Structure formats: C-alpha cells, structure tokens
Amino acid sequence: MLKCRTVWRKLAPLARASSTVCRQNVRRTGLTHGRLPAQVPAAHMSTGPTGGGRENQLYFLLVGVTCVGAGVYAYRTVKGDQLRYQDRIDEISSRQEKFNTENSDTPSESEPVLAAESVEATETQVVPKPEPQAEPVPESEAEPSPEPQAEPLPEEPSPPVPDAEVEAPSETTEPPLAEEPVVEAPPEEPAEPHAVPVVEEEPLPPSEPSPIELTESPPPPEPHVESDPPAEAAAESPAAEPPEPEPQPELVSESVGESTPVSLKVPSHTPYLLIGGGTASFAAARSIRARDPDAKVLIVTDEPDLPYMRPPLSKELWFSDDPSVTETLRFKQWNGKERSIYFQPASFYINPEELEGAENGGVAVLTGRKVVHMDVRGNKVKLDDDTEISYDKCLIATGGVPRNLQVMERAGEEVMKRTTLFRKVDDFKSLDKVSRNIKSITIIGGGFLGSELACALGRRSNDSGLEVIQMYPEKGNMGKVLPEYLSNWTTEKVKREGVKIISEALVKSVTCKDDKVEILLKDGRLVKTDHIVAAVGLEPNVDLAKSAGLEVDSDFGGFRVNAELQARSNIWVAGDAACFYDIRLGRRRVEHHDHAVVSGRLAGENMTGANKPYWHQSMFWSDLGPDVGYEAIGIVDSSLPTVGVFAKATSKDTPRAATEKSGTGIRSESETEDTATSPVASSTPAPSVEQHRDDYGKGVIFYLRDKVVVGIILWNVFNRMPIARKIIKDGEEHADLNEVAKLFNIHED
C-alpha cells in the first residue's frame, strides 16, 4: 500500500497535466470551427467533428505513453525495494556466521586470562598471541566459565588507551608462569613507576569475582588506590612483584609489588570541587562548610602543600631569626606572636579516599595533581594522570603564574637556571638558599613584590655582605602606584636598607659569561650579578578556558564572571583569576590577598544557594619592613590626580604597632569583617605648623577621577579601612579633602 501511494503521488501531477492539455485542445478546436468554447460539449473531447482527429490522436498517444511510463517506473521501484530488502536480510544473517568464524580463530587462553569486565572497564584492546595456542593455562588461573557475550564484538574493537588502568579478578594476582601471557604495557611508559590515570569503575556482574584496581602513581602524598582485595590475594601480592615488562601481545593484570607505590583512591565524584589550593579556595571551603555542615569538599592543587597564605613569603619570613624557617615555615609577626603560613594543620583535613564515606562531610585536599581538562556539559574534570572526577558545583581559583621578561626567556637555559620567578613556597626556599651562597643578587621590578624582597634581602646583606641590586623602568619604587614625591621617598627608604637602586632601566639582553649573569640595559649600562629575581607581575591562569568554553576578558585577563562570580550556572571563579564587574569602578581584576579572601568566601556562599552579588571593595597592603607600611583600596594609579594629607608619625604608626592592636599579621582577615556606618571626624584640629615637605610620617592619599574619590592609600595609618571603603562606596564629590582626612584621625597622637 505504501509503495502504491508513493507511485500515485508521483503520477498525479502527470495526470493533471494531461487533463489540462486535453481541455486546451478542445478549446482550440472550437475556435477553429467558429464555435464558442462554452458551447462545446464535454463529449467532443474524444468524438470531435471531422478535421479534429489529429488532436485526438495526439491526446491518446500522450495518455498511453504516460501510462506505460508509470507502469515501468512502478515495476522498477518495487523490484528495487525487494532487492534491497533481500540484501539487508542476507547481511544480517551473515553477521552471526562471521562472528562464529572469527571466534573460532581466537586462542582459547585469552578468554580466561582477560576478564570481560576488565576489557569493558579499561577499554584496552586484546591482541591474540599466536604462540601459546597449544599450551594449556593452569586451572588455578583460568576462569571456569568464560562468558562470550561479555566480550567486545569483532567489528567493534576497543581502541588501545596508552594510560589505561588494568582491572582483573583477584585470582590473577598469583605469580604468572613462564609460558603465561604477560601484561601489555603502553609503549611510552618507562620501567619505573609513574602516574597511570584511573578510569571510571564499571559495575561487575555478580558471577565474576571482585577486581583489584591497580594504579601506579608518583610520590605525591595523595596517591590513588581503588581496591578491596580478598585476604588471600593480599597475601599473595608480594610474590607477584616483577618489574613492568616490555610491550607484549596480551594483557593480564599485574599485582602491586613492593617496588610499585600503592596510590590512594581519588573520589570519582564530589558535590563541591575547588580547583586551586590558594587563599580563595580555602575561604570558599570554609564558607561552604559554614552554610552546609555536612558538605563534602574536594580541593585539587598542583602544589605539594596544603592551602597557605602567600604574603608572608615576601614579608615576615625573611625577618625570622630561626635558621630552620624554611622547614617549619613558622614566623614571628611584627607584634612578636608566632604562627604558621598554613591556614590549618593537616589534622583539619580528611584524606581524599575517605571523603565519599565521610558521614559528616569534610574538606579533603588532593595535592600534586593538576586539572588539565574540564567538561562543562558532563560536569567532570580530568587530571594530569587522566583520572576523572565528576562534580555538582565547581569553583575555579587557579590564581596566576609569575610573568617573565621575553629577553630572559630567549636568553637560554643557563640564564633561566639562575633566575627565580617568585610565587610559591618552593620559590621562597630556593631563593633563601641561593641568597646564602652567592655574593650578588639582582631584583628586576619595582612594584610591591620587588620592593618587599629588596628590603628583606637588603637587611640580610648587612650581616652576610650580599650585594642587593634592584632595577626597574620607573623613576622610583612603586612608581606606578604612588605619587612621584612619595615614590621618591620610598626609594630613599629602600636605599637605607642596603639596596642599590638602578631606576629607568630597560633590559636589552641577558647573557652568562665567566660564571656571572650580565644584564645589558638599553642605555648601555651593564650589570653583573650571580642571580636574578624577576618580579614583573602576574599572569592569570586561564588554561581551563579553552576546554571549558569559558570567556576570558581581553582587557584585564581572567575569567569573566557576573555579579555573583558565576561563569556558568554551576561554575564560579574567585581570586586572581576572576574578572568581575565593580558597581562603582567598572570591570576589574584584583591580585591581592584580601580580594582572594572575600571573593572566595562569597563564591562559597553562592555555591550553597546564597545568590549574593559582589560589592565589596577589597584592600591590599605592603610593608617595607616592620617600620613602614601602607594599606590601599580602590583604584590607586599614579597617573590619576592625587591629594595627600600628612601628619607627623609616632611610635604607634608602624606595621608592628598595627599587628599588636589587631592581633594578626594578615590585617585583611580582621579588616574585612568590619563595616563603617557613620565615621566621626577627629576633634583634634590640624596642627598649624606645616610639616617638612619630605617628612611623610603618616597620612592619607586620595586618588580622584572626575573629582570623585576612586582610591585611597593609608600611609602608616592602620585599622581605618572601613572608613575608606565607605568613602569610595558613597561616590561623592568633596570640596575639601582635608576635612575628609580628619575622619581617619591622623592628627591624633
């Protein structure tokens, strides 16, 4: 019926066309004989008067040809359908014969040795080994009843995966005989144990024994194991410890031996996944646990350390008298109290393998692992060892990587060996060791980090005789942030610490010669040194943007997020890598500790359903030793017009005194909790005697844009940040900023 209907639909237009031609012929015939078309009877179509026979013959001929053509077309269509149907039936029936034929050619040993579940779980390809066809496999190692239906079809072989993990029943842990097939190892795998990615576990049929998943992982503290082997298999495993063989044609499972490190189990799923182990991730984890006490949070970091604070790496740690400070990473704050750079001790966290079964949840840290791919649609990530972890909600807090000068990158390997890009704990340890064994060190960069390291190393040079050189393209230290007069004052302060300053220095080339690093400047000056520290800025880490399909801001860098720090519906970004919209100052990206704390905390709250917008004005601070320090908020750019109000400093106006009052060396931890509602100006009038123009003991610097305060620096003025935050938030014009400065009580003793 369907074929007939199809034929009719194709022939219907031809029939209608034939009828139209017939009516036109009749009309022409009537006009030729002087008759009106309306008077021509319908019967004249076939029996017209004498003289109209030719048209009728043409009509009959046309109708006949059409019918014959339609019949031929219908016959060929039906015949073709029958042939195609028969070919399809023959193809389907031949599949089983082909399958049986190829199965009969496969060695019988491959079935018991390679479990069906292992083939499906690891997606590895079994290549038959022709030699041992006639050699029987011992019954103790063979499966009693192989299941052919569980094996992959011949026409759909699984592609070999180089880093796949092998899964096999526990019986295969017995030492293999000499004639037994051996494991096929990936060609690129070396003999020593390295990281082998873990594939997702597939459920096993009840008829098969429970498998032992073997993984080889590097030495990091959180290796992965996924096994519950029977007692007898565990007892036999030490005997099966042969070194990893060369690639062989067949696959069997290799037991964990003493020479192969046993890796811990990586959770295959976590409700909250935090990528990055810095301040933002830790603040988010703490916020998630505060709102959801039973939450299970997994932090994945490529560093070997637990979450820690970075500011002490360039500040207090350098002023410690403890010779073992690089091992303990404990330091005395400016107020004399001792603390560690780690936010929490190791006992605060739970092991990653215990996270899934933790009844009350917890925070686990997977160290030494890097997320290299992100599947946003599938809600899962892939680690650098091919392990996959799925998540419900994810935070990206990857921070940034230190920049380097292109001329130094092109200088060669020898120059890079003598260069430190300061960012992590390992960088601090390395630089501390290097600075004790060389005679000269050069710091390139005049910003916060470069100036802090210069002051710290300069103080050490007084005792060790180390020559410390700092060079930068600006006219003075922190020239991009501070007004020129204050930048010059800061430069003199750094010089008094024992640092040799080379300003307006543009590096042309860097070479190694006579066991020295020679830095040639564009103006012809030549600087010889033993080691270089590059402190020229930070590049946001957006490596996951491509695989995740996330937007990167072209102006400021970093992942673009909305007011709730969301990049997607279940993905948030916080810290240095987040480019957010500031309702007062426009789109920004901030690279400071306080911003990491606040943005991480807010992201954690929003991951638990708070839906709060980001409105906080983050602050940052820098200390040039225990006697001079400043705190800043908003946009502080030396290219903006500024107004500074200064007063004479006292012994209370130092970073040391500020930490004694607040009780913490990381001042933002206390500042971000405070709010300023109605600041009261100081009743003490400003001194009538004008201070010396070069005496910048303490004061307030206002940065203006269109006569509105957009940034504030508190110079040796501490614990007043909530007032500065409120001034910027109000966004009002001020006729006399001297009166505004009184809100900070700078004229009080």
Explain what this protein looks like in three dimensions.
- This protein has 749 residues and is α/β, with parallel strands linked by helices.
- The protein is built from 18 helices and 31 strands.
- Strands 4, 5, 8, 9, 10, 11, 23 and 24 form an 8-stranded mixed sheet that branches.
- Helix 1 (2-32) packs antiparallel against helix 2 (53-105) and helix 6 (279-291) runs parallel beside helix 14 (593-607).
- The termini are far apart.
Give the tally of β-strands.
Answer: 31
Category by helix and strand content: alpha/beta
What is the 3D shape?
A: elongated
State the helix count. 18
**Binned strand content:** 15-25%
Helix share of residues?
25-40%
Question: Would you tell me the overall average pLDDT?
Answer: 74
How far apart are the termini?
Answer: 105 Å
Radius of gyration: 40 Å
Low-confidence stretches: 34-51, 106-262, 669-693
Q: Mind describing the biggest β-sheet? A: 8 strands, mixed
Give the gist of this structure.
This protein has 749 residues and is α/β, with parallel strands linked by helices. The strands form 8 sheets. Strands 4, 5, 8, 9, 10, 11, 23 and 24 form an 8-stranded mixed sheet that branches. It has a 5-stranded parallel sheet with strand order 13-20-14-15-16. Strands 27-28-31-30-29 form a 5-stranded antiparallel sheet.
